[in-house]
Fold this sequence. Notes:
The structure is a single chain. This protein is an alpha/beta fold. The protein folds into two domains: 35-363, Metallo-dependent phosphatases (Purple Acid Phosphatase, chain A, domain 2), CATH 3.60.21; 364-409, no CATH class. It is 30% helix and 20% strand. The strands form three sheets. A seven-stranded mixed sheet has the order 4-5-6-11-13-12-10, with helices on one face. A five-stranded mixed sheet has the order 3-2-1-14-15, with helices on one face. A three-stranded antiparallel sheet has the order 7-9-8, with no helix packed on it. Strand 5 (167-173), helix 5 and strand 6 form a beta-alpha-beta unit. The radius of gyration is 21 Å and the shape is globular. The two termini are 23 Å apart.
Amino acid sequence: MKKSFLKVIALVMAAAMLFSLTVSAADDFSVQPENTLQFGEDGKFRILQLADTQDDMFPSPGMIKMIETAVEKYEPDLVIFTGDNTGTVDLKMDAKYAIKAIIDPIAEAGIPFTFVFGNHDAENVSKETHYAAYRDFDNCLAYDADPEIYGMGTHNLTIKSSDGTKVAYNLWMFDSNMYDPAGGYDYIHEDQLAWYVNTSNALKAANGGEPVPSIAFQHIVPYEIKDYVVEVSEPDPNGFTSVNQDTGEKHHFALDPNYTEAGSILRENPCPSRVHGEQMSKFVQQGDVNAVFVGHDHVNDYIVHTTMNAADGNAIDIVNTPGASFQSYGDEEMRGCRIIDLDENNPWEHETFSPTFYDVVGDTEETRALAYVSDNIVWYYVSFIARIVPFFGEQLQQLLISAIYNAFK
């Protein structure tokens, strides 16, 4: 129902606006935008990670409210979208305006952003079309570092020291791709890893032969996460239960507590590729990456300290951030984002927490109503139509949201 409705609206808008989003042959996404990332005078740098915003040109008002409020409340120095930033959009215009909706609050705040693709973004509309839409924004730092390697948009961003004299930190952005032709989800391919090793070595050489402390971002979780999921005898409140459809037999799973940060939640089986790639072993080899941050599994929120170590001897963490989307599956009490705090005086450590939607916007009847309508397609359309009424549409929308929630909660 939603898709057909959106197609009609998008086509009408396209005709009315004579708008056409095309990718010119002259577009060169390998050109890196000016990078001004730098630690503050206090030696701090804050990242806001948004995973699986996964909506379309008429995005859920709850998600947009969360992005707007998170930017204002947490004052990040950089925003990173880790894939499935749009849903499976069918039209170029849908892609254009879905991207505009999530980037506008960040652009208005003057905060730089970057992104990687997930498995859904470009299922029907090309990655090139998406990239053109992102690069329309002056605050976009994303680029396609090597167009010859697998996927699109793998790149890195350096962060200068507070005095501006050197590269103090590095951020890796990997396109974890979409679907493996052999089956299942895709992974980071060999040529991508070769680019990583070469770039890592260049950074190391410029840093007196020492690895530059780094963290990585991608959509699909590395294969190694499977090593930290264990079967347990009883249901775990922070785990999940699998039911054999043939026998009805139940199996209970949780994260291994020996390697997992307290409070971590595993609501679904992690979904990496079926291929055991070499990404994590390359991280160990290079010694620079001390954590990889992912999305993809919307209802998982965990920090796993793996048995693989970075150059400082500490574990390389795998960190899953819960989804931000209202229009794809999720958990109302977990939906949110992630904050990552870096300190140039302690670069091999970082602090991170994952505020929920209600942590960000507050837990009131008004925000519960907003979440209810955002999560309910029929009522969302009612509120959307109200919003476009001239002069007092926004006020009318709020009244309708409250009335709908009170009637159906």
